[in-house]
Design goal:
By secondary structure, this protein is mainly α. The chain has helices spanning about 5-30, 35-50, 55-60, 65-75, 95-115, 125-140, and strands at about 50, 80-85, 90-95. The protein has a three-stranded antiparallel sheet. Helix 1 (about 5-30) crosses helix 5. It is globular, with a radius of gyration of 17 Å.
Length: about 140
């Protein structure tokens, strides 16, 4: 019989949680014509402010052409706009006032999903898990 190491078990549990959560989140985002990856861009802009396409790509660990497509959809929805940056060659992506309103609305809309997913998990455990995941992310990106 093969036994999983604690490390293998951890990443197995993460995988078993991640996909179903993303699928449920995508269903919650449908009324806003969004997917989780586009929501991630909006969250990044709320948390970190206006950034260039390259900075968004680096933060999300995806290729710039993928970010360009994600942002274009958000522009089409009027959630974000692109403006010239300090370096006129680089576009900066920022939320529109409408986008800020939509982000607030989405956060309220998905709150029950987040609460359900974290039911029975203490605030302390959530803080610990957040730190653990941040450390793993940092290790992977080194």
């Amino acid at each position: 019989m093969i036994f999983l190491t604690i490390e293998q078990q951890f990443f197995n549990e993460f995988r078993l949680m991640y996909r179903p959560f993303t699928n449920q989140l995508n269903r919650q985002l449908e009324p806003y014509q969004l997917y989780s990856s586009q929501w991630a861009v909006l969250r990044f802009l709320i948390d970190k402010g206006p950034h260039s396409l390259v900075e968004i790509a680096n933060f999300m660990s995806i290729e710039k052409p993928s970010v360009t497509r994600l942002v274009q959809k958000l522009v089409d929805l009027r959630y974000v706009e692109t403006v010239a940056g300090k370096d006129k060659r680089a576009k900066v992506v920022q939320l529109t006032p409408y986008g800020e309103k939509i982000v607030d609305e989405i956060q309220e809309h998905i709150k029950p999903l987040l609460e359900k997913a974290l039911a029975g998990v203490s605030k302390q455990d959530i803080e610990i898990a957040s730190r653990v995941l941040a450390n793993i992310s940092k290790n992977i990106h080194q």
